[in-house]
Design a protein that fits this description.
The chain has about 325 residues and is α/β, with parallel strands linked by helices. Helix content is about 40%, strand content about 25%. The protein has helices at about 10-20, 35-45, 55-60, 75-85, 100-110, 125-135, 165-170, 170-185, 280-295, 305-325; strands at about 1-5, 25-30, 50, 65, 85-90, 115-120, 140-150, 190-200, 205-215, 215-225, 235-240, 245, 255, 260.
């Protein structure tokens, strides 16, 4: 299997690093709208450089393209990739609007090629572990769960695309969607959604959402409107009838009355050329699953186009509520 990346930026680099640990597919090319960026990236990772997806797919005979470009370009580049005849792994958020997501799904079906969206948190070992805790029932019913994700505004964005709400959707669409997507994976459709938040010049910057599932309460907090030296935080606090799991600036730790607290151990990934890739965590599992299922023809189960479309739809509803209340 031969793959190419479109978008020689922050996430393109992450995907390219993961390919060092993928043994059943080769990353061979990169395309970027800025030729110098494509050339530099190609040199760093030993790839061929192109300016457009179509050129890259045709010249290299690719099987898959990873769309790692700004969010507002996801729809067009995904559709272009399908027209060129390849499978697509497109970064999250799926698109800027649900209608765009629908067009991407239709293009995938028309081409008979697979579409996966990079909702990596579903593949993150700690988050997978929490899902198993909920499903096993070992700790009783889940009473409440708190998911947090915030940090400094990402200043690396090429051409400042994420400063523009129409291109990125603010911190809520860009960053917090990870936890909206995960809660749907963990617990399914909520009974109620109540969002409050703040709006700044980049759009909805920070959100507090409460979702209810019967008597179980999920609280999600996230955003990106903080100063440049603010540390990134990704945290979990899940309280069960008979235990809890906490990850907060340290390893995931499980507590239960009558037993010692413990930190579940997660497999470390070694890159093919040496080096510890454990920091690539869920990205590795996500890309490996994509590669395996493109090869086997099996349908995606963890992240499907429909689950990603729904995560987008619910995040857009959160944004609608934030804006409505913020303007009062
Ligand atoms: N999964 C995650 O954890 C995660 C983390 C960060 C960003 N993202 C997502 O990844 C995407 C990219 O973000 P980033 O931080 O890598 O951005 P970036 O600005 O670092 O890189 C984007 C790259 O795409 C190129 N580009 C722009 N328009 C193009 C086009 N039409 N054709 C070809 N190349 C084009 C730019 O020149 C740049 O090299 C965004 O949708 C973002 O939300 C996901």
């Amino acid at each position: 299997m031969k793959s190419g990346i479109v978008g020689a930026g922050f996430m393109g680099r992450m995907h390219a690093n993961v390919y060092k640990a993928i043994e059943n597919a080769d990353l061979v090319a990169v395309a970027d709208i800025h030729p110098d960026r494509a050339e530099e990236f190609a040199k760093e990772f030993g790839l061929q450089a192109y300016n457009t997806v179509t050129e890259m797919v045709e010249a290299e005979g690719l099987d898959a393209v990873h769309v790692c470009t700004p969010t507002f370009t996801h729809k067009d580049l995904t559709i272009e990739s399908f027209k060129a005849g390849v499978n697509v792994l497109c970064e999250k958020p799926m698109a800027m609007a649900v209608e765009d997501a629908d067009e991407m799904i239709a293009a995938s079906e028309e081409a008979g090629k697979k579409l996966m969206i990079g909702h990596c948190i579903r593949y993150w070992p700690e988050y997978q572990y929490l899902k198993k805790m909920v499903e096993s029932g070992e700790y009783g019913k889940l009473l409440s769960v708190n998911l947090t994700r915030f940090g400094a505004f990402p200043t690396w964005a090429v051409d400042g695309w994420n400063l523009d709400e129409t291109k990125a959707g603010g911190g809520v669409l860009d960053m917090h969607i990870h936890d909206t997507d995960y809660i749907l994976y963990l617990l399914g459709e909520p009974d109620t959604i109540d969002s409050w938040g703040t709006v700044d010049k980049t759009g909805p910057g920070h959100v507090f959402t409460t979702m209810t599932y019967g008597n179980c309460v999920a609280h999600l907090e996230g955003g990106w409107n903080m100063p440049s030296d603010t540390p990134f935080k990704m945290a979990i606090r899940a309280i069960f009838e008979d235990g809890c799991a906490i990850m907060d600036q340290g390893p995931l730790t499980v507590y239960k009355n009558g037993q010692d607290a413990f930190e579940p151990e997660f497999e470390k990934m070694e890159a093919a050329g040496g080096g510890n890739l454990s920091d690539l965590g869920g990205y590795y599992h996500e890309i490996q699953d994509f590669v395996n299922r493109v090869q086997s023809g099996e349908p995606f189960e963890v992240v499907t186009p429909e689950t990603s479309r729904r995560s987008l739809e619910i995040t857009i509803e959160e944004i609608r509520q934030i804006k409505q209340k913020f303007s009062l």
